[in-house]
Amino acid sequence: MAMGKLTRGGQGSNPTPTTADLTARNSMAYTSSLHLSKHLLLPKPHRARPSSSRSPSFVRAARVVNGAPHVNGHSKKAPNGKSTMEGTALRNYDLLLRHDLVVAQEINLFVHYCLLAMPGVRATEVRRVISHPMALAHCGRALARLGVDREPVEDTAGAVEMLRSNMMLDTAAIASPRAADLYGLDVLAHGLQDESWNVTRFLLLSKPPSPVAVPVDADAKTSMVVAHRGGSMAVVLKVLSAFSSRNINMSKLEVINNEGGVGEPRPPVMILDTGARGAPTLRAFPHVLYVDCEGADDDPLVREAIKEIEKFAVFVRVLGCYAADTNVYDLQ
Fold first, then answer.
1. What digits encode the pLDDT tens for the residues 129-158?
2. Is residue 312 packed enough to be buried (19+ CB in 10 Å), middle (13-18) or exposed (0-12)?
């Protein structure tokens, strides 16, 4: 992921969606891992809107946005992100594919991790640390030095709430400095992340069409998924050729092979096909490519590349076209 300037408070070069854009959908859902900074992420008129709703996970947030319970008997689930330290959060991308949602905007956030504990608890008394699995991974070396057990939970905010509600005196949580202020916790350590430059990419999702137009003076980015049933490397080379022959830069190419070998059964990637005749249908694929490319999906060269890929791929779905944001926002 390309890194741009570090911007405090989210005042980047790309325009924030207007209140009219966001409220046209009548609701905004955000995950509890973001609710501690929600007031900084959302436009000011939308920060206190009653239609904004907190969801305890990406799955439930997507259900709120999607507004429908099930498709063909399958539970509809969805969204999100990438970290500079741990790479793509593949589970969330897999969930995104199960919904009729589009990526409307990307937001790159600098991540500050702190070790939080109940008031009066000392670091030497901590025997266990709870947090989101990615947060635990980001702080792996620091936790190893502490010699504590690690327990993954749904998200960082949930870890803080669990710590506070259960009055855990032998447990600490990894979360943001703001969580300590909101929940009245002590900060045992600042900057717990193993790498100082720790950035996570969040995606703003919407029902199609996207409520956020790409400004005419902004660089656009298009995200898509390419599904196929065999010959993984051959398909990768063909996808690369489709873009490189038209001088289109790719900022992401993630190859997922869920075919597995003998004794290695892996679940296929499920993708919602909204273009199927009749009701939208979930389709299963053993091989999937996640692609981000520079340019809008209505750009003639990008359209040509997509049409070329459709000739050899089993299924192609554009996940969204949005303004490319190279800024990194510091919400501290």
1. 999 888 999 999 999 999 999 999 988 888
2. middle
Q: pLDDT tens across 203-256, in order?
A: 888 888 888 889 888 999 999 999 988 767 889 999 999 999 999 999 999 888
The one-letter amino acid code at 167 reads M
What is the rounded distance in angstroms from the CA atom of residue 171 to the CA atom of residue 131? 11
* CA distances in angstroms from 268 to 81, 156, 172, 260, listed in the order given: 20, 29, 37, 10
- Alpha carbon distance 121, 172 (integer Å): 9
Pick the CATH number of 6-110+199-330 from 3.30.390.30, 3.30.70.260, 3.90.226.10, 3.90.850.10: 3.30.70.260
Residue with tokens 């790498």: 195
Beta bridge partners of 300: none
What DSSP string runs through 187-245? EEES--SSSS--EEEEEEEESSSPSSPPPTTS-EEEEEEEEESS-HHHHHHHHHHHHHT
Query: What end-to-end distance do the CA atoms of the chain give, in Å?
Result: 22
* The total number of residues written for the chain in this structure: 332
pTM value is 0.70
List own/partner pairs for 13-18 with CB under 8 A and 24 or more apart. 13/218, 13/325, 13/327, 14/105, 14/215, 14/218, 14/323, 14/325, 14/327, 15/215, 16/43, 17/43, 17/104, 17/105, 17/204, 17/211, 17/212, 18/43
Q: Which CATH superfamily is domain 114-189 in?
A: Periplasmic binding protein-like II (3.40.190.10)
Domain limits of the chain?
A: 6-110+199-330, 114-189
* Cross-strand partners of 281: 273
Contact, 138 vs 84, CB < 8 A? Answer: no
